[in-house]
Amino acid sequence: MSGVENGRIVALSQVEAKIEPYDWVFAREREPEIAAHWAAISAGKPAMFNGKVMLQHHARIEDGVFRAGYFETDYAAFMSWRDFGHPGPVVRNGFAMAALRSADGAFLLGKMGEHTANPGKVYFAAGTPDREDVRADGSLDLAGSVTRELCEETGLTLDEIAVEESWTAVILEGRIAFMRPVSVPLPAEAARALMLSRMAEQDEPELADIVVIRSLAECDSYDMPPFMRRYLAHIYGQD
To answer: pTM to 2 decimals?
Structure first.
């Protein structure tokens, strides 16, 4: 993957992705282990659904444009591959995130509910790309994923947010977080209250809470994945 080395943080003007045929040996050869692992991690969590997701199998960066090929696989295979330590040739979960910021400069992150695959984790609204993100021409709409996931998880509407055109890719083993700046024209606490009120109206909210972050030191109080800490350290000039 040219220019896509682990540990990099890259400013991008555009992300281009398309779905391609790919024989993922891991999913084919370790099917019994995958089935057993899925049964274990989904037990007692009926909200966890073994649908189809899109993973990235090749990528390159050219003149600020990230170009990638994705393939379709089962969510169970993805979760097993993640939990088994990303075995096999380089594959990544390349997902888009809404780096949501309030009018007074604070970041607004979601805390995942106990019924989800990542209970208690704190990060921006996001989701592994799935069939809803695939356009008719086979391209992957990561920009659309940003707003779809944000609105679904927080209850915010498109007319309540402003989305920037730029991206920042945080590249780590097994994953790439494509961060896109999104703003809401309210102070942090008012924005949090609004989102919590909308989430309370959802039948089964994915998020348990909205977390306000105003400094890198505050991240230590939460269970954040490495890509979140890395991005916030970069934004706060402490990477």
So the answer is: 0.94
Tally of CA atoms within 13 A in the half-sphere of 136 that contains its CB: 0
Instruction: Report the length, in residues, of the chain.
Output: 239
Helices (H) and strands (E) in the chain, counts: 6, 12
Q: CA angle 46-47-48, nearest 5°?
A: 90
Fold of 9-235: Nucleoside Triphosphate Pyrophosphohydrolase (3.90.79)
Is residue 107 within 8 Å of residue 213, measured between CB atoms? yes
Q: Where are the domains of the chain?
A: 9-235
Name the token pair of 89.
């040739």
Cα–Cα distance for residue pair 216/232, rounded to 1 Å: 6
Token pair, residue 173, equals 């083993």
Give the residue among 102, 103, 120 at the shortest CA–CA distance from 111. Answer: 120
Which residue pairs, CB below 8 angstroms and at least 24 apart, start in 22-29? Answer: 22/57, 22/69, 22/71, 24/55, 24/57, 24/71, 24/73, 24/77, 24/88, 24/91, 25/88, 25/89, 26/77, 26/81, 26/87, 26/88, 26/91, 27/73, 27/74, 27/77, 27/81
SS3 212: strand
Phi-psi region of 7 (alpha: psi -120 to 50; beta: other; left: phi over 0): left
138-161 pLDDT, tens per residue? 999 999 999 999 999 999 999 999
97-121 per-position pLDDT tens digit = 999 999 999 999 999 999 888 899 9
Judged by DSSP in three states, 229 sits in helix
